[in-house]
Queue: 4 jobs
Job 1
Amino acid sequence: MNTLFSLEIKTNRLYCNGKATLIRLIDADSAFALALKDCLSQQEVLKLIRDFPNEVQIPPVGVIGPKEATDAQYQCAQTLGHMLASLGFCVICGGRNGSMEAVCKGVYQAGGKSIALLPGDNWLEANPYVTIPVVTNMGPTRNSLIAQTAFALIAVGGGYGTLTEMAYGLHYDKAVFATCDAPQIKGARYDTDLETIVTNICNILFGDLSFNEPAIAS
């Protein structure tokens, strides 16, 4: 292993510059682990994640937003989904219409995976782009599960339901990002530039960004 990246022997958790990342290898002797020895940057590790998606454990990124999205919000969420999936991230969302459909569509177009935590008991409620539909029969309470499962949340527009999910995320000490007229809540990081948001998501993955840093200016 090189000096930039190392593995914790007991857990197979990846460290970057001595900081714990949100990446855990399934097998320390895998092709991913062997290739990791030659990685000299975070970008090279992200490429490995894309090349060997089944050899690592990484929590998903949560994308939340309204079920009746505007055209701008729909396009924003679709673009975001494509960007995240292109970097190897799995996306978790509510799985139905609006921003949720849009982000799943973007993920699908990039060849990625999306998880839908559905409020009802019928998997067919999922939008047609969802990869893994999960029925909860919990109604809006499932919003808490989305916030707990994701390592970070990105709100694309939204109303009271999205605001609830953002609040859950902050309560669980998750980084919460917001764009495209998302609800205002103290502690969330607002930005109109998706590249900036995705860069910060990558920073969190590699342990570089504290959840307690000041909010990003919009």
Job 2
Amino acid sequence: MQTRFPRWLLTLGAMLFALYPVALAIFSFYEHPETGDYLWVSLALYLTTMVPTIAGYRSWQIPVSQALFNLIPALLIPMLLLPNLPKDSIGTYGTWFVGAMATMLGATAMRGHPWIAAIGNASVVIQVVAWGGLASIASTGIFGAVIFLAAGWLMYVGLSRLNAETEEYNQRAVNLAIESAKTTATRAERERRINHALETASPVLSRIVSSRGLLDDGLKQQAVRLEAALRDEIRGEALITDEIRRSVNDARTRGVEVTLLDEGGLEDLTDSERVALLSQVAAKIDTVSQGRITLRAPAGEAWRLTLMATRSGEPEPDIWLKLGTREPAQ
């Protein structure tokens, strides 16, 4: 079982750690009172940027404006304090701000802006080395500042990857829910059509049973049309609307052979779009008085619907209709 720490607890721990340089700054005032008001201004700058960087914002990423604002103390605090510190203060609390900037910039890197944090970190390092020489690298916390930046950067990479994987997982879950809903809707629609077909067939079937198989010509024709209608409900699926059902039945009454084949070409249309498209087809079917009609909804082709009406002995179809241009796949 996975254990998740509350965000407030993690934030509290980070805040307590970030306040440690504040304590060092106060101690440094007693060691180096010459920093005077510059120290308090520097502390104010640090706290103003550190608190929202660590504890602010609901998203794990802070705004770019906040990250850019964090450059201000990284640039100004060394400029305010270093000219007022004697060179022999290397290794004392006087360079507290190096750790403070490392904490704040490490958090900036972790929360989505590693390059901005790197610029701020470089500013601190350059100013400290320019003030204390290369000897200051080992005793002012510069190594720690670089490590903090690297750690924040690595955490940013990990969080970005985790966020991307989470979004991908959520999208897969949404797609699965959509597919499940489509399947449920398709199943419900199929059941509705089957029930409708059975209700329609029931009177004719009852007459066939009562006649004990002795069918007159009229009943035979009704049975043939009924068999075709049942086949339409099974193979026609999305092609079946009340208007299509009526037009096909009328065409068969006129002696026209009609075949409906739904191969999935209408799946991504709304009901209103599907009905409007099939209404055009029904109007064309009503004009056919003999021969054979084939209505298809092909999948993976440039057209959503094709309607062909042919007559025996005629080389060209009477109707060859393509409807519903499909948008090309991106």
Job 3
Amino acid sequence: WNPSAWIALVISLLPVLPGFLSETGVLPSDLVPDFLRQLYTYAWFITFFLAFVIYWLLNSKIIRRPVISLLAALLLAFVPVQSTRASRFIPPIAVLCPESTVTVLADLVNQRLSYMKDVAAYKWQHQLSIENQAREQVVIQSSVEQASVYGLDTASARSFFEAQIIAAKEIQQYWFDQWTTQGVDEQLTFRDLDTEIRPALLDMGDQILLTISELRLWERSPSYIVRNRRRFINALTTEGLGPREKYSLYEAATQMEGR
């Protein structure tokens, strides 16, 4: 029995522990930062592999100095973090552990919807209406065209982005109601709508379409879709998003098809 080997093994596995606890329901999703959940989603395989390599090296006496081995464990535990940042949208877990694919998609939808508080603040400050049908049609048409580029059915893509727009407007209305009843801080800050928010939303939309095209949810069994509905809904943690819209987003996402 080699205590150093076991300690190094535990240290090496620490980066993916919060994400694992979130995935298994031990910790609520909103208590675990998106980055840590994404780390588990994208880099769990390389983390486990490196951890057991370290354990084997220590247990077989190839590495004999505990201090050096523990430093090596910390260094190698850092590798998945960097690999996650470098290749966020090529998740090996989508192949090796299909149950987590819906969490990958939910994380991306969360990131896109997180901009809605800024959108609401911009409209509030400039006394604009939440509803903007002309802009909505531009966004939907652009998304449908991009879906075609990724080999996705345009009709189902339209339904999915319409569901996102409904969710986005619900979040904006939530913040409007908050500011109406509770007042607004004098220094209400928000990112610029034209130079920051809209380009980011278009980029996130592309990433969502790319992920859907890679995950190929339309090929999953009906039991998979039913089994993972709660996982997806629980992973959507954007403030102001209600359960009905979360359900609609999942249904629209899983009904998307390839061409």
Job 4
Amino acid sequence: MRPIQLTSNGLRFVALELGGGSKTALLLHGFPDNAKSLLPLATILAERGFRCVVPYMRGYAPTERPRQTVTSVATLAADVVGLAAVISRAPVYLIGHDWGAVAAYAASKLSPEHYAAVCAMSVPPIPAIAENLPRDPTQLSRSNYIGLFQLPQVPERMIKANDMAFIERLWRRWSPTWEIDEERLADVKSTLAQPGVLRSALGYYRSITRGVGGADYRLSARLLLSPSSAPTQILGGQMDGCMGAELYRGAERFVHNLSDVHILPEVGHFLPLEATDAVAQRIVSFFEQVDAD
């Protein structure tokens, strides 16, 4: 594993690089998380011939601290497009988890020529969520933290209290059958405790209600709601306490080149950590299928 620095969309990113294969995979983490949670998956992919690049996403140290603390989906997409362009002349294989999946969906629509294939984990296409939400009222209680995060300052104080017990509760609620990796969780807490990181991480959620009607907001909405044409695989967890399995129904209507939607049994939200081998096998098989086509 090698730390590298990359510049994209006006920001200096720090990434972890593994492997030296001819094909490049770009792996994107979510919240509350950091790049190292994707290293077990990246290690397997590197063994299977991929060069893997795993950046700390915008706002997450040691990536440069952005001036703006609210990060729109359009900004995330531009970040990913720039990263893909700087790490490979050939189209990259894009893998995203949680907010990384949202960024992957959006980037593949903003600039599809940069991506050979997309794997989105733990988040279905946003239009599928909107369509299925009325049929799954329990999702509203699962997602109540999003409303909390819209408040100024209160979430920051709440999350920082008691050694970030709030973050541990989220991990346990979202992956109820998983024996949490305490060292991994401690490292995530350490990242979120760095100056400005927590506020920037919450800024992803705050973009949902900020700047409504502006050009950036409209572009973000288009990137979220328009159909995708990139070859795509979607993976979810049956026991996910963040995104219910019901929300994936009808995903094929919003991803026109969808390979499959697979819900892993007895697995929660943190697929890359909970079911690393199974996830890696499905991703490699999907990428090989794309290459064969």
